[in-house]
Model the fold of this input.
Amino acid sequence: MTLPFSDRFRSVLTSAQRVVAFTGAGISAESGVPTFRGDDGIWKKMRPEELASMNGFMKNPALVWEWYQYRRTIIGKVQPNAGHRALVAMESVFPSMAIITQNVDNLHRRAGSTLVYELHGNIERNYCITCGATYRDVEVHPRSRSPVCSSCGGLIRPDVVWFGEMLPEDQWEAAVRATESADLFFSIGTSAVVYPAASLPLVGKRAGAFLVEINPEPTPLTDSVDEFLQGLAGMILPAVLEVARQVRRENFA
Ligand code: OAD
Done:
């Protein structure tokens, strides 16, 4: 695939050292994981206050568990796609490449990315709301309200960030540090509306990064980016990788 990359973007690809890819649900769409806000998006059919909030969990843990086990089943069956794989391969061009993801699906790690900051948690992990003990696999019995902690008997919940909750501090701080030192920042497959994560692209730009957005649709960020690459991440990221390899070969030949 040949894209009309600007000369400035090609030049940044030649010289960039510190590269960040900030990703949202769109990067996993081609794997078959539903996004949140499209016409077919999860939040068009489900109520976030019931399924993704501490209040909702305390009112009806069984419903929340049913929903997360359903999502786990979907995610367990899918594979990383060409977009995830291109980001892994970019580490051979940009060795310190960092992924900052809003996704909980673990697909960046499963693809093989080395440095992944998870701002909204990871659906493969769980923890006890009373003592904090962590669990990977939990069994949800049809008649119980929720899995319970084997050390203290507290309710176990998925290790994902729900509405009204703080982001995991270590992941957020590391993500901000990577963003502030980036010279090239990609915003990929996100509607860029959920804060504080959505603030990162402009934090990067203000700190001097060249800002690239990859999305089939314009977003509230689009007017502020240096390069808008309109299309599917699974098509565009392999093309970016190819051009990055090519311009660096030419430059260092
Ligand atoms: P959204 O569902 O809000 O946005 C997905 C974006 O991906 C949209 O802008 C689509 O146009 C774009 N898109 C769709 N298919 C694509 C593809 N193949 N390639 C590239 N882009 C594509 O998802 P997020 O922005 O990730 O939070 O949503 C942010 C947060 O809202 C989520 O992390 C979740 C949700 O509520 C929590 O659960 C805390």
Remarks:
- The mean pLDDT is 94.
- The first strand starts at residue 19 and ends at 23.
- Residues 1-32+80-120+167-253 form a domain with the Rossmann fold fold (CATH 3.40.50.1220).
